[in-house]
Amino acid sequence: MTASHEESPGSALFEAIQRGELDAAVAQVQAEPALAHARDPALGSTPLIFAAHRGQLPVVAALLQAGADVHAREAASDTTALHWAAEMGVPAVAELLLAHGAALEPRDQWFALTPLGWALVVRWAPQGHQDRPAVARLLRAAGAREDIFTALPSGLEAVRAVAAADPGAVAQRMGFVSASMTALHLAVARGLKNSLALLVELGADVHAHTDDGLTPLALALARGDAAQVELLRGLGARDDVATALITGDLATMEQRLRDEPQPPALLAAWLALAAKNGRVEALGPLLRGGAAVDARTRRLLGETPAEVTALHLAAREGHAAAALALLAAGAAVDGLAGPGLPTPLHVAAGNGHVAVVRALLAHGADVAAQEAVYGATPLQWAEFNGQDEVAALLQAGAQGMF
User: Fold this and answer.
1) Where does each ANK repeat begin and end (predicted)?
2) Alpha helix locations (H) across 225-377?
3) What pLDDT score does 1 carry?
4) pTM
C-alpha cells in the first residue's frame, strides 16, 4: 500500500503471483533463487504460501527447486503452504508439497485445523475450490489423522471413531476466525442434523457459547433451521440471552440480563454481534445489562488479527445508526484497538461507508492515525480501495473543513 511495502524484498515476485503471471514469477525465482525465502511484510507470508494458495503448480515447483522452506509458516495465520493447497483443492500442488516433506499435522492460528481440516472444513479461497475431496483423499493416504472436525463431514461412524480414541474431542474448539466453535456448533452451521444427537450422546455441551456468544440453539435459530431447532430443544437446549437476541425478543433479553448476571466476555460478544449486524435496538439493553461499550473481541481486520471494539464492527459493516448509538453511549471514536491497529475510521474508509465516515468525523475521529502494517492513514485506505467519495470527505476532514 505504501512505498516501503512496494520496495520490500521480493515484492515484485509477490505481485506477479497475485496477478497470476506465472511465467514472470518462475523467471524471477530462477534468476534470483534467494527470493524463495522472501517474506511479505503485511502478513509475514512466503512466496510458496502465496503460490500454493492460488494453485500455481509451476511457481510452487520453481520455489521448491530454489530451496523454499516447505515448513515455513505465515506469521499472520500460522499456516503452511499445505494448508492453502488443501483449501484451494489442487491435488498436484498438495502432492508436490508432500513429496518435499510437508508436515501433515500442524494447526493454524485462525481455524486451529490441520491441512486435512482446511480441505474439509475451511471455506476461504476466493478463486473457488477445485477438488478438495481429492486433496483430502491424498492427505489421508499420506497418513493425516482425523479430528472431530474432519470426521463430521465423513459421517457418524467417523465421529464415533474419533470420540472413542479421544473422549474429550467433542469439547475441542476451532480457532477464533470460526468463533471458537465446537463440533456441535459446526454440525449446526453445516446443516448436519443427523450428527447432533450423536454429539450430545458423546458429551457435547448443548449450551456451549461461541466467541460470538451463540449456543448451538441460537445458531440454529439464526440459520432459520426449524428442524435443528426442534431437535436441539429435544436434546435439552434451553433459551438464553443469545436466543432472545437472535429472535429479537428484547423484553426477554432485558429480563434475563437483569436476573442472570453474565460474564463480561459473553456481554462483549453479544454487543459485538449486535453491532456487526446493525441491531441498534439491542445495543441499549446490552449496555444497560453490563456490556462495556469499548470491550474488545478478537477478529480479522482484512487478514490481520486484531482486538477490536463494537464500533469497529459497526464501521466495517457500514451500520451508521449502530455506530452513532455506540458513540452516544461513550464509545471511543478511535476504537482503543491498541497502538498501530486500524481505527474504526480506517475500516469504514476502506470499505467505502460514507455515512459511517461522516459520523466518525463529526465525533472527532483522527484522520491522521496510522496503522502499523502499512503505516497508512484512513485516507490512504480509501484511496487504495478506490473509494473516491470517502477520500474526498477525508481530505476535507484533514483540512479542518468537516
Assistant:
1) 43-75, 77-109, 179-211, 212-244, 306-334, 343-372
2) 226-234, 241-247, 250-259, 264-276, 280-288, 310-317, 320-328, 344-350, 354-362
3) 45
4) 0.91
